Fold this protein.
Amino acid sequence: MTRQVILASTSSYRRALLKQIGLPHEACAPGLDEAPFHARVSSPKPLAEELAEAKARALCERYPQALILGSDQVAELDGEILHKPGTVERACAQLQATAGRALRLWTSVALVDAVTSEAWVHTSLHTLKMRPLREEQIKCYVQRDQPLDCAGSFKIESEGIALFESIDGEDYTAIIGLPLMGVVSLLEAAGMSYPWEDTEEVSQD
């Protein structure tokens, strides 16, 4: 059975990942205020899972017949959540603190059935070992890649990959923002299976 699938994100990287598995979908920004979640939840895995599901549920009223995918990433160092820096100065400070060390990246994807309100959640964990970095390297990277809205202050899908020595985890697509093996499993749980039937793709703001 084929259902309308909505991606609760307008990220070009996440859209490209869904295209990689040939999944017809529409994209729409969830418009979710994440601040209350960050203030209330202090553990990285629960935070990633709650945000992923909340993003999906934020579009249920707009798409009442759809299956809606939401995703979120939370980086942590020694159990402490690395929040989005927001400024160049905070990004540089965050990278200076993590240089030469191993951090963990939790990537959660939630699928919500807008008809029944049922939700399925999958979470992938990756350990990333960052290279020792000089101050000038960090400043150059932040200036070039502008990772100010990224947990951990890096964009692994672009120049940020150069910051790392190794990555250990189950699904490399999770690092980019959407664990595709998990997505397929969630869709199967909801009654869809590969290969998908073609439907028109539309991107909405």
